[in-house]
Amino acid sequence: MEIKLYEDKYRDDMIFMVLQAKDALGRIPRLNEDLLDIKAHYFDRGDMFWIAVNDNDRVIKGIGLIRMAMKTALRQQR
């Protein structure tokens, strides 16, 4: 496993991973709006987003860091 700063080339793979995980948990497979445009929802606001990829360079986890007044919130995408 390797943790990388998010790049747009991983967008479709990340979306597939999230939908597949939600389906496996029996949840309605819907996307959070922020995943459709990581740049606008994270990087353009001064926040961060990383992905974890396996040995085949497939996304297995997404991790977003959103800065908030006086504290930081960490959001994991499964």
Question: Any key phrases for this structure?
Answer:
Aminopeptidase, 23% helix, 78 residues, 4 strands, alpha+beta, 35% strand
Explain this structure.
The chain is an alpha+beta fold and 78 residues long. The chain has a single domain, classed as Aminopeptidase (3-Layer(aba) Sandwich). The protein contains two helices and four strands; from the N terminus they run βααβββ. It has a four-stranded antiparallel sheet, with helices on one face. The longest helix has 14 residues, at 11-24.
Briefly say what this structure is.
This protein has 78 residues and is of the alpha+beta class. Helix content is 23%, strand content 35%.
Note the topology.
Blueprint: E1 2-5, H1 11-24, H2 38-41, E2 48-53, E3 59-68, E4 71-77
Antiparallel strand pairs: 1-2, 2-3, 3-4
Mean pLDDT: 88
- The count of helical stretches stands at 2
Q: What is the global morphology?
A: globular
What does the radius of gyration come to?
13 Å
